[in-house]
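Sample entry (205 residues):
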Amino acid sequence: MHVYGVQFFAKNSLPDNITLEQLRKEILEYLPQELFRGVNSVFLGDFKYLQSRGAQAISYNNSIFISSQQETTKEIIDDLAHELGHNVEKRFFNNIHNNPTLKSEFLTKKNRAIGHLRNSGLIDYDYEATVEHDPALDDLLANEIGLHNLEKTFANLIVTPYSLVSLSEYFSEGLEFYLLNDAFYLQNICPVLYNVIVTILKSGE
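Predicted structure, serialized as tokens:
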């Protein structure tokens, strides 16, 4: 299957309720062609590397690998949108990583979240918030506390708890939310991120 000139491969049998044609239809509906620039191929399958990392998708060498062991087409679209966010991030690195206003917004939110976790007794050590990926915080949020357990707690602060892990994930989670969920909500709670995303998408029109 080809979409926007990108070849999609199903390395294993897909679940009965997921078809490549339905996947193609939803990609064309929700994901702009500009996001796929620089992506050569997308692989769907039961990949041991993803299993070993407890991940659903990963980008590598201009290709995207997504687990086919999912219940709905929407879940695959979510993962694809997220990885496309990282693809866009690489192309617009300066707009994101050399943007002091965006960094400030991210770090302000991260410090507020960390303060809440500390006051709740979930962090008992001194923690300096940075824009880089923090494996310790990643493990705390995902495995010790559980991301789903923090969704209501941080609902009016960030679009997803995982976006606290790094500036990279802040952008990619934000782009996914903008495309597939509620752009107006993103604008309300993360206005700088919203403006960066809109500017990037408009530059590709």
